[in-house]
Amino acid sequence: EVFSILYLLCDLPAEAVYEHVEGEMEILTTVVEMLGDGPLNMRLQLAGFRLLGVLFSRLRAISEETKRAIDDTGARDLLIGAMQKLKAAGYPDQAAWLHVVA
Fold this sequence. Notes:
Number of strands: 0
Radius of gyration: 13 Å
Mean pLDDT: 78
Oligomer: single chain
Low-confidence stretches: none
């Protein structure tokens, strides 16, 4: 639920959330740690990757430093791992869907 709330907050116009995101960079690490701790919780995975995706792509106003911080968290590796696990478990459609949403 927390990730969903964060996503909705970040879905506001970029100007409204830009400085708040910049001021709370440690939340990125927290989100990725939670994703790493709950690899089987697909609801958590989807919400977390969705949040990181909107932060990275939709908020174009964020600084390059923030984008690098998102890259440095290792979220991309977690996403690739989650997609590989879904494919290996026989869920290629869900893996593709996760890739598109994230």
